[in-house]
Amino acid sequence: MAVFRVLLASLLISLLVLDFVHADMVTSDNAPKIDCKSRCQERCMLSSRPNLCHRACETCCARCNCVPPGTYGNYDKCPCYANLTTHGGRRKCP
């Protein structure tokens, strides 16, 4: 019975260590962070609601680390940005 407990404890510890290593590998990407503020200023310069546009754009940029070029469209350049949606199913990112 004691052998079983030791074996179970070592298995659980191993799984926990593997989970921490995997989480560290996922969060530590080597891509440099872009300047979201300036990219979103370019993206939102023609918006009729610039404050709303900037807030949404900067949220999306922080999550995806990219902003499509231009003031509209070009979602194919940044799929993560294009796939973020609101609770209502509409595109979150301008």
From TrEMBL:
Top-level taxon of the source organism: Eukaryota
The signal sequence is 1-23
Sorted alphabetically, the Gene Ontology BP terms of this entry are: digestion; gibberellic acid mediated signaling pathway; lipid catabolic process
Keyword annotations? Gibberellin signaling pathway, Signal
Where exactly are the transmembrane stretches of this chain? none
Task: Tell me which PROSITE patterns the record gives.
Answer: COLIPASE_2
* Record GO terms (molecular function): enzyme activator activity
Cellular component, GO annotation: extracellular region
Asked whether the UniProt record includes Signal among its keywords, one would answer yes
InterPro entries for this protein = Colipase, GASA
Concerning its family, UniProt says: Belongs to the GASA family.
Q: Which PANTHER family match?
A: EXTENSIN, PROLINE-RICH PROTEIN, GIBBERELLIN-REGULATED PROTEIN 1-RELATED
Designated name of the protein: Colipase
Organism of derivation:
Arabidopsis thaliana x Arabidopsis arenosa
